[in-house]
């Protein structure tokens, strides 16, 4: 299970180091793509195949499936790590997330999000302020789905 929050610095040529704990949990064959709220998503190939399967199983006539495919799949890049767990964030993805010199890796069970550190702090503030409302919405969705 991939969990936790780790800060890191962006080096020369937009190179970053994946935290050791995450490296051990996620493996080496990685895909990096656009995320929501100006973040990036890092997954292993096994998880990526599940994402791709959702796209494959969806109908290309469905606008939401096409848009999700364009957003996630269209920007995806295979990532090569060196022996120290470092990899380069491609320019287009770096710009999508508006990353600065400090980033945060967030483990979310099956994937890792990468955030600009300042943006992440703002997001945490938002989540703290609106946590109860968000929990209520999730609860409503669960009741509707199972109901």
Automatic annotation (TrEMBL):
Give any GO molecular function from the UniProt entry. Answer: transcription cis-regulatory region binding
Q: Does the keyword Repeat apply?
A: yes
Pfam families documented for this protein: MraZ (PF02381)
One Gene Ontology cellular component: cytoplasm
**Main subcellular localization, coarse class?**
cytoplasm
Write out the entry's keywords from A to Z: Cytoplasm, DNA-binding, Repeat, Transcription, Transcription regulation
Which terms under GO biological process does the entry name?
Answer: negative regulation of DNA-templated transcription initiation
- Similarity comment: Belongs to the MraZ family.
**Assembly notes:** Forms oligomers.
Q: What is this protein called?
A: Transcriptional regulator MraZ
- Organism of provenance: Candidatus Dojkabacteria bacterium
